[in-house]
Amino acid sequence: MKHSLHLYGTLGPACATKEKIRTMFLSGMTGMRLNLSHSNLDDCKDWLQQYYEVSERLHIVPELLVDLQGPELRIGTLDIPLSLSENDLIFLVSEKSFDKRKENSAIFSRIIAGEDELSIIPCPDILFSYFDEGQEVKLNDGKIVLELSAPLEEDIFCAKVKKGGELTSRKSIAIKDVTVPLPVLTETDKQNLKLLRKYHVTGVMLPFVRNADDLITLRKELCADGMDYIRIFAKIESLEGVENLPSLLPFCDEIVIARGDLGNAIPLPKLPAIQKRIAMTCLRAKKPFMVVTQMLASMEQNPVPTRAEVTDIANAIYYRTDALMLSGETAYGKYPVEAVQTMTKVAREAEKTKLAANDIRVPIEGNDLDVTSFLAKQAVKSSSKLNVKAIITDSHTGRTARYLAAFRGTSTVFAICYRERVMRMLSLSYGVWAVHQPWNDSRRGYFYDALNQLIKSGRITRDNMVAYLSGSFGEGGGTTFLEINNVGKVLDANSNYTLPTFQE
Q1: Predicted confidence (pLDDT) per residue in 260-309, tens digit
Q2: 353-357 contacts: CB < 8 A, separation 24 or more?
Q3: 225 and 151, same structural domain?
Q4: Is residue 504 part of a domain?
Q5: pTM score of the predicted model
Q6: Per residue in 202-242, pLDDT tens?
Q7: End-to-end CA, the chain
Q8: How would DSSP label each residue in 261-295?
Q9: Which of 304, 333, 355 is the last residue before a domain boundary?
Q10: Which residue of 4, 259, 394, 441 has the smallest Cβ count within 10 Å?
């Protein structure tokens, strides 16, 4: 049975086997993300082959999200991983100088003495215009913190380790309270975008979204290659993205609350409030959102999560997230399968035990104060008051189904979509089962087919009640009526069962 939440893992060396991917799917995973900050799509073709072979055998049409590099800063390639301890002295060197360190022996002899070369970290050249003595620099989503000293050269800074840890190549780097202007898409990003169709990618995650123009740029790039069907996930990782959030919503399909770099951009004590603020903005706008980063970080090394991590997952669900995603836990952690199983179990329990009295109220106000929103809310209320097991709606734009998802009923929402783009968009929404059926038949046929599919899937029986939301005036007319009836009676009535949209 389809789970209401979307649960993603991240594809990487730790889980890229048929056996592990199969177990993760069977455990409740609904799709995977591929981080292209470290590689390109062609480099990952063997992993993707495993992924699609497993999904085909399981008769799953899998989601595959790719995470671009975007306007994000990362360190260069290290010769070997660095183990940094508190109070260690290290050197931040521009990638240009790092690549030519053997040629610049006169400069590097001042900081290199045998194995001391391991203490050099290559950094993007642009950063050195913003580095200054006393600044705090965060690496690997804030897991490692440095304090800059005076520069040795214009592109060589000494730094003291304030918070240590293991550092590997291509990890994030950020200067506290400093925004560095960068292009929306790198050349590597543009190359990867041209490969999306080849590898059956369904969604693109754009990091560090700052404003609507960033999303418009990505959409134009997709449309230029005939891939307007690809969904866009806007990652909120900066204060600028938080402040501009309302203006971003019309230009993306889902918001991603990416707490790693977002936690670098703001004081950590403020992060919970910011996460709640983003969630509430999305809820009011009926926009799906996802919570990611360090959901089960301890399971990269341990088979059992912390109590705090379990509570974090549950709280994200109580705040009505549409999706959760694991990152390093499945990409390179020691227990990728166990992490997915843990997330799934906690998510199901949280959904099952959340109290209606403590649920977040989504008000009907402003532009939402209309017949569609009112009927959608009443349909959701019928789930508990009349024990309605499924809500069926047909859709040209997806608006009614998005409202049904936002009001968070206990019933499956079966959305009949007349456009493929709408189906793909709605597949991101909580509890929505979206199917594409071109407009070439009467709505009676669509409605009966929906009932039969719901029965076959085990979501309803002939004895159950279902609700039907539709409009009387065709495309663009909006939702105008709500019908609630017994499944068996509807099916037995056949052509004698009549609604305003039914045609002979």
Answers
A1: 889 888 888 999 999 999 999 998 888 999 999 999 999 999 999 999 99
A2: 354/317, 354/318, 356/384
A3: no
A4: no
A5: 0.80
A6: 999 999 999 999 999 999 999 999 999 999 999 999 999 99
A7: 33
A8: HHHHHS-GGGHHHHHHHHHHHHHHTT--EEEESSS
A9: 355
A10: 441
